[in-house]
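Subject: Sanity check before I submit

Could someone independently write out the structure tokens for this chain? I want to compare against mine line by line before I put it in a report. The sequence has 249 residues.
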Amino acid sequence: MRRQRVRDLLTRVADGSLPVDGALTALDADPTESLGFATIDHHRALRQGFPEVVYGSGKTTEQVVAIATHIAERGDGVLVTRIDPLVADALLAALPRMEYNAVARTALLRAEEHATVAADSVLIVTAGTSDLPVAEEAAVTADAMACRVERLTDVGVAGIHRVLARRDVLDAAGVIVVVAGMDGALASVVGGLARVPVIAVPTSVGYGAAFGGLAPLLTMLNSCAGGVTVVNIDNGFGAGVAAARILHR
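---
Independent answer below. Compare away.
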């Protein structure tokens, strides 16, 4: 249950429009639920503003669907990441209102009650088209967490004029997520131009010496541009969560 729903319940109890027993009925669901193979944290939304997110990779289709449907029953929505098309089909059959993003490999069921959207926007900047799956995961995550999302794609440093020409877009953002593989240099460039927090996401895109994303990870960690923070390789989800928490501070 999201904090806003709890606040609304308490307000209605205070003004007499909802009996105490009615509020208790809405609140008495257990904070955790065991499915045998998983234990769902139903109070995640109350503590952190968004329900527990289901990481789909490594789980069976049946497990993913079961976890997602049990979270969705609370009405707070649910986000599932890292799923293949077969799992997506099963989720859509169980929860028809879900939105499947094939590039991001995510499925999102929006909450029954819309959360307050952050005043500023998250700008997702990608170095190349090959970085889009990770970038879209960050975009879907930030969108799910009530942020407006803008995108600036394929502006890597090999053609640095592309990002320099979009300075207005950088200046308009509330927080910037930079997604880049290869040498990962774009995060430092954006960090040197932007006045807002920059979250860098190294991707596993690149030739052998990129070591599956280790090279861009080290480049971003060693950035000389102030205000650049770094998440793990290919962790678009983590970047999206961080960006949303910054904007909803």
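---
OP: Matches mine. For the report I'm noting this point. The two ends are 19 Å apart (CA to CA).
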